[in-house]
């Protein structure tokens, strides 16, 4: 996969390791990851963990094995069900081999958590190459539960038959697990001789989890708000009447204008540019429609510019705000660029607070 980073501003020197004897002296800066469900913020959290944090051991990655098995089986079951709905007389349109594969996969528990057998893997491969299943995937906007990363696992399904399967870092980044609770990770950077220690906090983006957001609002220095740009044609998992991109914009507007964050800098991260590009190129897909957009429905650049403008204009504060477009699962993405944007925003935030304090200290005329 090619590079998917588009950023306002210039790239600066990369993130560096801080000497161990200096780490304890650095006061952590609290970064809060927010966004709706399926935006990819937990994937970004894992990227920070892998690239600039403590990393992931084999034991850490083993925890993702069962969710991956479940993702593969449940995703194919959803595609089979969608294919049946889309095709009258479905049984008459499939071969005996496809029929046998359907029966095998549909006989499994949706929460299947064991390594796949060879027969299961062969059935997944056969079904994924079937034209009716492919068509169902292209029209997946009607299947809100379907993860956008399932093709990756279908294409690498044979490795899931290993009795001691240990997910690779690439597997972990493509695994979709709904975040529950609160998770924190530390990383550090060096720029121009200054050491900076960060604490990144990730909380669940599903509606039921958002009630917990206020528990981590205290002493937040900067918000990383993640938006999936590819969800213009999908509805929320919890509410089939609400568009996911609309939900993201609504949540961003509430967050940025909240009394909690009037002066808190925000880095607005538009994620899943790879999925957006794939959708715009597909002949199956609905073309881009969102609010009052009237530009070319397949022009990625104009769509990005429209989304950037729509979100930024919803901010009614004077806080520092920057935007960046990324593909979080792209392993060529250099996260030090994101870190540099964070550092720039923090500097701008400090300067704005100084100016505000000076203005407040002036005697009334």
Automatic annotation (TrEMBL):
<dbReference type="GO" id="GO:0005834">
    <property type="term" value="C:heterotrimeric G-protein complex"/>
</dbReference>
<feature type="binding site">
    <location>
        <position position="179"/>
    </location>
    <ligand>
        <name>Mg(2+)</name>
    </ligand>
</feature>
<dbReference type="GO" id="GO:0007188">
    <property type="term" value="P:adenylate cyclase-modulating G protein-coupled receptor signaling pathway"/>
</dbReference>
<keyword id="KW-0479">Metal-binding</keyword>
<feature type="binding site">
    <location>
        <begin position="173"/>
        <end position="179"/>
    </location>
    <ligand>
        <name>GTP</name>
    </ligand>
</feature>
<dbReference type="GO" id="GO:0005737">
    <property type="term" value="C:cytoplasm"/>
</dbReference>
<feature type="binding site">
    <location>
        <begin position="202"/>
        <end position="206"/>
    </location>
    <ligand>
        <name>GTP</name>
    </ligand>
</feature>
<dbReference type="InterPro" id="IPR027417">
    <property type="entry name" value="P-loop_NTPase"/>
</dbReference>
<keyword id="KW-0460">Magnesium</keyword>
<keyword id="KW-0547">Nucleotide-binding</keyword>
<dbReference type="GO" id="GO:0046872">
    <property type="term" value="F:metal ion binding"/>
</dbReference>
<protein>
    <submittedName>
        <fullName>Guanine nucleotide-binding protein subunit alpha-14-like</fullName>
    </submittedName>
</protein>
<dbReference type="GO" id="GO:0031683">
    <property type="term" value="F:G-protein beta/gamma-subunit complex binding"/>
</dbReference>
<keyword id="KW-0807">Transducer</keyword>
<dbReference type="GO" id="GO:0001664">
    <property type="term" value="F:G protein-coupled receptor binding"/>
</dbReference>
<feature type="binding site">
    <location>
        <position position="42"/>
    </location>
    <ligand>
        <name>Mg(2+)</name>
    </ligand>
</feature>
<keyword id="KW-0342">GTP-binding</keyword>
<feature type="binding site">
    <location>
        <begin position="271"/>
        <end position="274"/>
    </location>
    <ligand>
        <name>GTP</name>
    </ligand>
</feature>
<dbReference type="Pfam" id="PF00503">
    <property type="entry name" value="G-alpha"/>
</dbReference>
<dbReference type="InterPro" id="IPR011025">
    <property type="entry name" value="GproteinA_insert"/>
</dbReference>
<dbReference type="InterPro" id="IPR001019">
    <property type="entry name" value="Gprotein_alpha_su"/>
</dbReference>
<dbReference type="GO" id="GO:0005525">
    <property type="term" value="F:GTP binding"/>
</dbReference>
<feature type="binding site">
    <location>
        <position position="328"/>
    </location>
    <ligand>
        <name>GTP</name>
    </ligand>
</feature>
<feature type="binding site">
    <location>
        <begin position="38"/>
        <end position="43"/>
    </location>
    <ligand>
        <name>GTP</name>
    </ligand>
</feature>
<dbReference type="GO" id="GO:0003924">
    <property type="term" value="F:GTPase activity"/>
</dbReference>
């Amino acid at each position: 996969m090619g590079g998917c980073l588009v950023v306002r501003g210039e790239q600066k020197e990369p993130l560096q390791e801080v000497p161990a004897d200096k780490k304890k002296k650095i006061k952590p800066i609290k970064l809060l990851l927010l966004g709706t469900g399926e935006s990819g913020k937990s994937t970004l959290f894992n990227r920070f963990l892998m690239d600039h944090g403590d990393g992931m051991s084999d034991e850490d990655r083993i925890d993702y094995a069962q969710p991956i098995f479940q993702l593969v089986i449940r995703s194919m079951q959803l595609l089979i069900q969608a294919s049946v709905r889309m095709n009258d007389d479905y049984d008459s349109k499939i071969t005996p081999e496809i029929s046998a594969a359907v029966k095998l996969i549909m006989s499994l528990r949706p929460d299947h958590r064991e390594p796949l057998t060879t027969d299961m893997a062969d059935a997944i491969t056969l079904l994924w190459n079937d034209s009716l299943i492919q068509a169902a995937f292209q029209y997946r906007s009607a299947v809100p539960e379907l993860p956008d990363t399932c093709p990756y696992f279908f294409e690498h399904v044979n490795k899931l038959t290993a009795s001691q399967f240990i997910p690779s870092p690439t597997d972990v980044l493509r695994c979709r697990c709904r975040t529950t609770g609160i998770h924190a990770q530390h990383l550090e950077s060096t720029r121009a001789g200054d050491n900076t220690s960060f604490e990144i906090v990730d909380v669940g983006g599903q509606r039921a989890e958002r009630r917990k957001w206020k528990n981590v609002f205290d002493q937040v220095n900067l918000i990383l708000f993640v938006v999936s740009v590819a969800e213009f044609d999908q509805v929320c998992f919890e509410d089939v009447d609400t568009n996911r991109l609309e939900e993201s914009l609504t949540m961003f507007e509430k967050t940025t204008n909240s009394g909690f964050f009037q002066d808190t800098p925000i880095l607005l991260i538009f994620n899943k540019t790879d999925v957006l590009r794939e959708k715009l190129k597909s002949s199956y897909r609905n073309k881009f429609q969102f609010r009052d957009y009237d530009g070319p429905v397949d022009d990625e650049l104009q769509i990005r510019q429209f989304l950037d403008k729509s979100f930024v204009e919803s901010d009614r504060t004077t806080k520092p705000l920057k935007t960046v477009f990324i593909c979080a699962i792209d392993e060529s993405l250099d996260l030090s660029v994101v870190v540099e944007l964070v550092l720039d925003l923090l500097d701008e935030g400090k300067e704005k607070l100084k100016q505000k304090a000076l203005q407040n200290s002036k005697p009334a005329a």
